[in-house]
Amino acid sequence: MRELGFVLMAALALGALVAVYLAERQRAAAIRALAIRFGFHYIGEALPRSLTLNGTPLERASKVWNVIDGEPHGIRIIAFDCRVGVGRGSWRRTVIAVERGSNLSLLLNPEMKMDSVGSWKVLYRPQASTNFRVAGLMPVTELESYLNSVAADATKSSQRV
Question: Can you give the pTM of this predicted structure?
Answer without folding.
Answer: 0.82
